[in-house]
Amino acid sequence: MQRRSNTAAIALAVGVVALVIGIWLGGHPKHLPGFARDALVQDDLSIRAEVMKDIEDSFYKNVSDQQLEQASLKGMVQSLHDRFSEYFTPAEAKVFKQSLSGKFEGVGMAVDSRDTKQGLKVSKVYDGAPAAKGGIREGDVITAVNGNSIIGQSADVSTAKIRGPAGTKVTLAVKSGSKTRTVTLERQQINVPLVAGRIINRGGQKIAYIRLGAFDQGASKQLRDEIDKELKAGAKGIVFDLRGNPGGDLTEGVLVSSIFLPKGDLVVSTHGRTSPEEKLHAVGGGISAKIPVVVLVDPGSASAAEITTGALRDNDRAVVIGQKTFGKGVFQSVENLSNGGILKITAGQYFLPKGENLGGHGIVPQVKAKDNPKTKRDEALPVALRVLQSQLR
User: Fold this and answer.
1) CA-based, 20 to 30 A from 256: which of 108, 152, 293, 352?
2) Is 180 in contact with 211 (CB distance < 8 Å)?
3) Would you say 200 and 207 are in contact if contact means Cβ atoms under 8 Å apart?
4) Could you say which of 117, 314, 368, 371 is catalytic?
5) Per DSSP, what are the bridge partners of residue 195?
6) Which fold, 195-392?
7) Of 94 and 337, the one with more pLDDT
8) 99, 258, 301, 303: which one is catalytic?
């Protein structure tokens, strides 16, 4: 009797283990033998096809197979709950690629890409550009392009829809406060300098004010040329303005940091779930360490702009001034898919020299300063100049 009970207990235990293993393998089919994996995957495809057929047969509106397929792919990526990961349909992929082309033919405005649930929020309008002539102002929200809503769409896709060949027209729905109006603008070539600089005379001392708009390819060379020009003109210190800089190429982030840091200083380290840790260091050839630097930042300073800011701060090379930065502590990879779509997915995290990851909280400036966009005066710049002057004495 005891032996029979033991046998039953063993059988039950084996059954439970088999059940647990079965459940685990059901969620991890790649670990199954080939025949079992094929059977499970086939079942998944059958259920998917069954759901699609039920929608087509019973839903009160006509829905194409292609529409359901694309929605399914988008749903998979959305289930990651990662705001930087996105699936672009073949049609969206074409527009997204245009946004990466570097062509600046459009209406002359920059947008805040952090939240598009209500549309594209305008963060800057360039003087004399079509957007400015059309009465678009900072803080306005673009809700539709050529009659089609862009609410909730990727900022990459939406901005590419606004851009287009110079001489063509685009119609935008613009929301200002509670009122929405429609404005038609003619696109033109927008010449926005990547780097801009000038000498500011302050208390008998020359200070270089240099702004970097983005970390596009070639940014580091343009920046170095401008810095050398201002130093040759007699500048004794540098205000490095990264406000509103959305970042860009990681390599440029390292090269820009190398302008200020000695060779070998750690700039950033990266780490992904399936990739080993990589440490990126300053490459050398930087300016003299005796030239004081302050960095101006705000909530629009993101990605590579935060990497450079953090590298200069952590290596005691600059004082950070302004407002808390965006807080993007991850990087993405972009994959071209066989259906013509694109998968942009977060591939890993990056860490500042002292080990900090900025995801969700950003860099807190050592000295707070805020510009009021409603005034012509830049209220944050005088704070940066005062801090820099204190280091020149």
Assistant:
1) 108
2) no
3) yes
4) 314
5) 212
6) 2-enoyl-CoA Hydratase; Chain A, domain 1 (3.90.226)
7) 337
8) 303
Domains in the chain: boundaries: 2-85, 105-189, 195-392
Q: Active site includes 314? A: yes
Which among 317, 241, 242, 311 has a CA at the least distance from the CA of 282? 311
Residue 390: active-site member = no
CA distance 174 to 384: 35
Does residue 145 have a pLDDT over 80?
A: yes
Of 385 and 164, the one with more pLDDT: 385
> What are the residues whose beta carbons fall under 8 Å from the beta carbon of 25, sequence distance 6 or more?
31, 32, 36
Sequence-distant (6+) residues with CB within 8 A of 357 are 329, 349, 350, 351
Instruction: Say yes or no: do domains 105-189 and 195-392 share a fold.
Output: no
Under 8 Å between Cβ of 297 and 309: yes
Write the pLDDT tens digit of every residue in 206-260.
999 999 998 988 999 999 999 999 999 999 999 999 998 988 889 999 999 999 9
371 is catalytic: no
- Confidence tier at 42 by pLDDT (50, 70, 90): low
Alpha carbon separation from 361 to 217, 319, 326, 327 (Å, rounded): 27, 19, 7, 5
Give 3-state DSSP helix, strand, coil % of the chain, rounded to 5.
35, 25, 40
Domain 105-189 has CATH 2.30.42.10: yes
Residue indicated by tokens 């208390």: 203
